[in-house]
Amino acid sequence: MLNVEVPRHPASTRKILDVEVYSSRSKVYVAVDGTTVLEDEAREQGRGIHVIVLNQATGHVMAKRVFDTYSPHEDEAMVLFLNMVARGRILIFTIKDEGSFHLKDTAKNLLKSLGSQVAPFLSWRDMWTFVGKKGGEVYGEKHAKSPALSTWGDPVLLKTEVHLTSMEDAECHWPDTELNRRRRRFCSKVEGYGSVCSCKDPTPIEFNPDPLKDNKVFDVPVAVIAGNRPNYLYRMLRSLLSAQGVNPEMITVFVDGYYEEPMDVVELFGLAGIQHTPISIKNARVSQHYKASLTATFNLHPEAKFAVVLEEDLDISVDFFSFLSQSIYLLEEDESLYCISAWNDQGYEHTAEDPSLLYRVETMPGLGWVLRKSLYKEELEPKWPTPEKLWDWDMWMRMPEQRKGRECIIPDISRSYHFGIVGLNMNGYFHEAYFKKHKFNTVPNVQLKNVESLKKDAYEIEIHRLLGEAEVLDHSKNPCEDSFVPDTEGKVYVMFIRMEQEADFTTWTQLAKCLHIWDLDVRGNHKGLWRLFRKKNHFLVVGVPASPYSSKKPSSVTPIYMEPPAKEEGAVAVPAVAAAEQT
Amino acid sequence: MDLFRTAEKMGFQWLKILNKDPRLDGMDDLSGTEIPLHYIFKLASHAIHLVVFYERSGHYLWHGPLRLKQHMDRKFVPFRKLHFGRYPGAYEKPELLLASIDDLKVQIPKNPSSFLEEISHSRFLECRYREARAFFQLYPDDASLDAVEFRKKAKSLLHLAALTLNNLGVKFWLSSGTCLGWYRQCNIIPYSKDVDLGVFIRDYKADIIPAFQKAGLPLKHKFGKVEDSLELSFQGEGDIKLDIFFFYEEDDHIWNGGTQAKSGKKFKYLFPKFTLCWTEFVELKVHVPCETLQYVEANYGPDWRVPVKMWDWKSSPSNVQDNGVWPVDEWDDVIQIY
């Protein structure tokens, strides 16, 4: 740790900061005026280039990032980040372990343009520290070359002084309005949000989406469940506040922990934020956070009969509230419903077509959904998993003991888009495989078709009607091939698969896999029936004989059977079945 | 914002009192921004006290206490003379009426005297969530299905009892095990078996028994008589009972009676005098003794913090006294079991 007895400069009109930056194989630290603002000596983590942004007038830390430029593409992320930082900020760089292997020319040139003399020549296992002002002078740079491939450069300690500017020089001169006062408070505290802090033409922080006529969800509280991903929260809130019919006064953001930056983002948009002292660990911590947030939501809005539950890593469609306004009465009138969700687990770009279409499904997709107060207060809250139970809250909600055979309403085209790549259950591969190509509605004001037919008995009539209209496909062909479905548009086709009993999903899982839709567990079914689109035709899949709709199968048709491939050549390790959200 | 600027322009000085939002209190530790509780507007020697009411679960309105922070001017107005703010208060949600007073359109309660009458006994107590959390650290909560089921039934029964008694205009409070549950753990004690309420004997109404019958809660037993040791017990759904203990006020103490059916033995439970305050319990606005610690200690002794699953009403309470025996010729009257 630092010797806090570091001599300070006598108080003068121009304040001077003492900055210390340390770079080595196993440890990095940065200290500003004797206070450690970064220290990382943990093993197996924090490799690459650490970047700290200081406010040039106050010396406060505005952003802290680490880019593992040993690995590919991190240098691109670093370039993006540095380009977003405002001119005049103080930038501090230090390498932990290795930061040159995938530091490509674009990044090196950017660092050179910031004043670094060493960056263009950084190589394998070199240690490096650099302090400079963006668009201004260099305060110091130190470097130690690695003498041999198998060794690291010697640890490097850079001590330098930085002169602070006046507050005026560090801020933009936006016109004095309430909004700009919020903007100023945010932008002088935080960096990395790009054009919302531009001196010229900053991105708006107030959105005036069209009001919604006869808005049935204007008074429904919206709970945004958040952790410590403030840049995600920022993106999510922008889309939420741009949705038609949004009522910002009903939004509360619940942050799981005493993190400042997410609260800064909440305040930037003039919303209400609440911090929750986290308890327990991992998925149990998330589960306790949900419980605390939902209980608080109903306490703050005692008259509400519903709550909208959103997470920080979702884009919200422009017609999200319109969609809910048209469908929420179903949740009120139909006891066989568990929730309304904005997410279609099977709604990919190639399998979803109709924004006005709704389905009933036997799963609880989450990812932007409506919770009935009576369900929460009478059933879920009293037996919510206790803190030591390491369960996923949504897996728990999907269990038969909780769901009790009830269904959720979902749209064919999802009204939320899951963009989070970093999280408790997420990683780049998982996102790429299952979330990136999810279809997301961007059409405003979609009028939902025939909402009444989503009620329990009416839906059966609708299914029977559809099955009556559907053309039976040629079951001798391979259902995985595109040619299985004719080159038509707007028609309804049906296919029968083998489903021995209610829980036999062998064939369905294989089919889902080859169609590149959700196959990690079974979602989207309604009494052994799945509905999707293929080549813009409505495509029904019926499980025989388990599904009651098996009676529609012509006797001449043999249900298709697909079995899992024999386990030889080490099949891809499928990630443990997990919910796809959360911190 | 405009309100304050306009008021300033008119010459008012104003003061605002903010504090923690009690709706965030619970078993979880949440903190948000402070909420406005009171505003005082002063002009010359006149003051307007704007009390901010919040609606809370349980269909009631709550306002906070008026506590001045360090830097505030204690002489701004004669705070002690204000009608609201000595304590937090709970009120029935009044229906409002638009009225014209001195050519000003204002909303007033539809039934002003009813609202005003509530002021003198509006004092509200928050449940002690911090202590409840500490209790659960020592004695982890019972999360079994049985416990969940019992709590559900007990909550339902309590809501029904409250509705019935409120309709009759009979004042009641949480007593015995139910009161202990509120005070110690902000919840129904899962092994408590019954819901216990207290009623002052002076508030007794003969209508109570038929009203409960009508509500689906038949009389299970009636012990004692109005003049002495009255106790009513109603059958709820399943195994659960609603016990109503009637309390008798003496000069320097309050007591309720108990009867042992098979022997005719009488018992007396003594309590120091207490007054009633409002609180929120399982989404219901109910009374509890304001001097709850005294009340709980009288009933459960100094070790009330320690859960005791085997409780014998004849001997376990700290404040129980033998009170003789009912004369045999009265037994038909004072011991009625259905």
UniProtKB/TrEMBL annotation, chain A:
Pathway assigned to this chain's UniProt record: Protein modification; protein glycosylation
Enzyme class: transferase
Catalytic activity: 3-O-(alpha-D-mannosyl)-L-threonyl-[protein] + UDP-N-acetyl-alpha-D-glucosamine = 3-O-(N-acetyl-beta-D-glucosaminyl-(1->2)-alpha-D-mannosyl)-L-threonyl-[protein] + UDP + H(+)
CDD domains: GT13_GLCNAC-TI, PANDER_GnT-1_2_like
Primary residence: Golgi
Cofactor: Mn(2+)
Family label: Belongs to the glycosyltransferase 13 family.
Subunit structure: Interacts with DAG1 (via O-linked mannose moiety). Interacts (via transmembrane domain) with FKTN; the interaction is direct and is required for normal location in Golgi membranes.
Protein name: Protein O-linked-mannose beta-1,2-N-acetylglucosaminyltransferase
Taxon lineage: Eukaryota, Metazoa, Chordata, Craniata, Vertebrata
Protein's gene: POMGNT1
From TrEMBL, chain B:
Membrane topology: Single-pass membrane protein
Record GO terms (molecular function): transferase activity
Major localisation: membrane
Keyword Membrane attached: yes
Record has Iron-sulfur as a keyword: no
Compartment(s) of residence: Membrane
Keyword annotations: Membrane, Transferase, Transmembrane, Transmembrane helix
Domain (Ribitol-5-phosphate transferase FKTN N-terminal): residue spans on this chain: 2-155
One Pfam family recorded for the sequence: LicD
Residue span, LicD/FKTN/FKRP nucleotidyltransferase domain: 169-206
Family the entry assigns: Belongs to the LicD transferase family.
Protein name (record): Ribitol-5-phosphate transferase
Organism for this UniProt entry: Apteryx mantelli
Gene that produces this protein: FKTN
